[in-house]
Design a protein that fits this description.
By secondary structure, the chain is of the alpha+beta class. 34% of the residues lie in helices and 20% in strands. The chain has 14 helices and 16 strands. Strands 8, 9, 10, 11, 12, 13, 14, 15 and 16 form a 9-stranded mixed sheet that branches. Strands 1, 2, 3, 4, 5, 6 and 7 form a 7-stranded mixed sheet that branches. A hairpin with a 5-residue loop joins strand 15 and strand 16. Helix 10 (351-367) crosses helix 12 (408-414). It starts with 7 loop residues before the first helix and ends with a helix.
């Protein structure tokens, strides 16, 4: 389990007590894919205090075979090809129960002794800091949906289309047992493990945390599930829709605003609908910027296809009380605390960027005291039920990028370095899609994404 560590010496003592001989310095790239280097414990003190060199090309490389994107500051194309220097966040240390004598710690990059501002975790942390300056903290958690298939045949590990089936929950009892046993050991406090609708589709929901820890937990959950799946002869994929015509996977982002100390929820008051002013402002900000942040919530062309009617995903910038057809579903937990389920984000979304985009949009709503449109009381897929002039969500990458490009508030909040890197990836994907269509390759998305995500 993650522990509070005050200094490197204390962590060294902790690792020796845990019989850790190797430590994984790890981060998530722009896609949220885990990247790491393994350090023998004898070199940990040096790497933790002086830094670990790490090529920052992960912020500027796509996954095509023909090299890197034209973003000179971060990619291998750059004339001098400099390394970033990575430093660990000591509080993210965990031991990995399925790997012998191995620990893990999350890292963040610096370049020329300054934080590398395009890095997704740094982008997210800065939004958390900006929210704190307004007097609020964020309590959040993610609902992970993913597919599990045989690693050789790619056949789903469970059959049939029936969600929450007890038999499908135990499609492979040993796999289920290890997930439920080992994930809590790495800090993922599972609330629910259940089968989803499609064959081989699974959902894991974890307990919420304050600040960046929630996104760290999501990152840990994803790579842990993928590693454990391989041990059992499976591939776990967070690709949103691997097979056309099937239910897509989501990454619903459940969150609520609290005071800075994390003691009192700021979501409710005595208004007619129970929502506080700041909660209404927050909702309005997210809806105002929904078209722009959609490319962060649905980061691939495959993800954007999820935005279609009657798909359990939203199609417009809508909200409602306990309404699963809207983009934002306002509901309450069993303790009576109100929270928002952001249903915009897809299974392949980067959890750090989901958090960052949500907070950036919500902050703008607070600053400008925006009021949301009327909440949708019926089926939000039917136009007569949604308010006039409601913005529709983009369903293709070109349109989604245009919305982001034209939203100066979101661009400024996330930073121009990040914007240039991120849009570079997306422009490359547009080219990939065009090339695939010209070749008649209808499986290019699955070839590109399935095992990576």
């Amino acid at each position: 389990m993650a522990v509070k560590i005050e200094n490197v010496e204390q962590l060294m003592s902790k690792m020796k007590a845990d019989d850790v001989k190797f430590i994984r310095f790890e981060l998530g790239d722009m896609y949220g894919v885990s990247r790491s280097k393994i350090i023998p414990i004898s070199h940990f003190m040096e790497k933790a205090t002086r830094g670990l060199k790490f090529n920052p090309g992960y912020l500027g490389w796509d996954y095509r075979k023909d090299g890197s994107l034209p973003i000179p500051k971060y990619t291998f194309i750059a004339g001098s090809r400099p390394d970033a220097v990575m430093f660990p966040d000591l509080d993210t240390y965990i031991t990995i129960p399925w790997l012998k004598n191995t620990g893990r710690i999350l890292i963040e990059p610096t370049l020329d002794s300054e934080p590398l501002t395009a890095h997704p975790r740094i982008v997210a942390r800065r939004q958390i800091d900006s929210l704190r300056e307004l007097g609020y903290s964020l309590l959040s958690a993610y609902e992970h949906e993913f597919f599990v298939v045989d690693k050789d045949t790619h056949e789903p590990y469970t059959k049939g289309n029936i969600s929450r089936s007890t038999l499908r929950n135990y499609g492979d009892p040993e796999f289920t047992h290890q997930i439920l046993t080992d994930l809590p050991e790495v800090g993922v406090d599972i609330e629910v493990f259940e089968s989803e609708y499609e064959a081989g589709q699974v959902e894991i929901v974890h307990k919420p945390s304050f600040g960046i820890k929630a996104a760290d937990t999501s990152h840990t959950c994803r790579i842990s599930v993928k590693e454990i799946a391989l041990e059992h002869g499976y591939i776990a994929s967070f690709m949103t829709q691997p097979w056309p015509g099937t239910e897509a996977s989501g990454l619903h982002f459940n969150h609520s605003l609290w005071d800075v100390q994390g003691q009192n929820s700021k979501m409710m008051d005595n208004s007619s609908n129970g929502l506080s002013k700041v909660a209404r402002n927050w909702i309005a900000g997210i809806l105002t910027h929904a078209p722009a942040i959609s490319v962060l919530m649905a980061p691939t062309s495959n993800c954007l296809k999820r935005y279609e009617p009657y798909s359990c995903a939203p199609t417009a910038a809508t909200w409602g009380f306990d309404n699963r057809t809207t983009a934002l579903r306002v509901t309450q937990n069993t303790n009576g605390n109100m929270y928002i389920e952001n249903r915009l984000s897809s299974g392949a979304a980067n959890p750090y960027l989901v958090l960052a985009a949500t907070v950036a949009a919500g902050i703008d709503g607070i600053k400008h005291e925006m009021e949301p449109p009327e909440n949708v009381k019926g089926n939000a897929y039917e136009f007569e039920n949604i308010p006039a002039k409601t913005a529709m969500l983009p369903t293709d990458m070109k349109t989604a990028l245009e919305h982001l490009s034209n939203d100066n508030v979101i661009r400024e909040a996330l930073g121009e370095d990040f914007y240039q890197c991120y849009t570079g990836f997306k422009l490359s994907e547009i080219l990939m899609e065009q090339e695939a269509k010209e070749k008649g390759n209808t499986n290019w998305e699955r070839e590109f994404l399935f095992e990576r995500m």
